[in-house]
Amino acid sequence: MNNKRYQHILFDLDGTLTDPMIGITSSVKYALSYFNIEVEDLRSLCPFIGPPLKTSFKDFYQFTDEQADVAIAKYREYFSKQGIFENTLYQGIDELLRLLTENEMKIYLATSKPQPFAQQILEYFHLESYFTFVGGSTFDGNRSEKANVIQYVLDSTDIKTRSDVVMIGDRKYDIKGAKANNIDSIGVLYGYGDEEELANAGANKIVTDIKELSSFLLTGNIPI
């Protein structure tokens, strides 16, 4: 991947552009309380950041499909009113998006978060003008897997050559979703995945921070 400059940059949202820890974990806590499950430490719910919600409720709390659907509805009760704003933009992201745009690269969002929520978050942080297309999941549970979201973004845009495309994210779902669509991927370590997770998923490149990510995208080389 040395000296390679991509023309189409797909970004994950949670753990890549923003740190949604408080909003997501508080929403999960609210949903679990409906089932009389109490959580004292919000950090214990950080594994919910990244995967589709239904998968997380089933994997972490052994919910049935029906219970998971109820939990998601309760989650959205809190998230839509409060949790969506309990979110922080990673320092340097605004500058990175500006530089990519100035270098005539096209930027896209590919998130497992419902598309209306994703659009609202971009607008909240005044980032929407940077994005050529915003792709997310649907409220009915369709297109929740990251591979399907990435395919949706690719199919909905004028991207012709997949070798010009890269997916950037902090979890294995981003990396595996990219591989499923035959595009390169970059894993970031400032989010919620670790190096082992990203490497095992098959990331083409792993970067430590936003400065390193910016340098690689703009020059194709990581600074020494």
From TrEMBL:
GO terms for molecular function: hydrolase activity; protein tyrosine kinase activity. GO terms for cellular component: cytosol. InterPro entries: HAD-like_hydrolase_sf, HAD-like_sf, HAD-SF_hydro_IA, HAD_2, HAD_sf, PGP-like_dom2. Gene3D superfamilies: HAD superfamily/HAD-like, Putative phosphatase, domain 2. The keyword Hydrolase applies. Keywords: Hydrolase. It holds the Pfam family HAD_2. PANTHER family: 5'-NUCLEOTIDASE, PHOSPHOGLYCOLATE PHOSPHATASE. This is HAD family hydrolase.
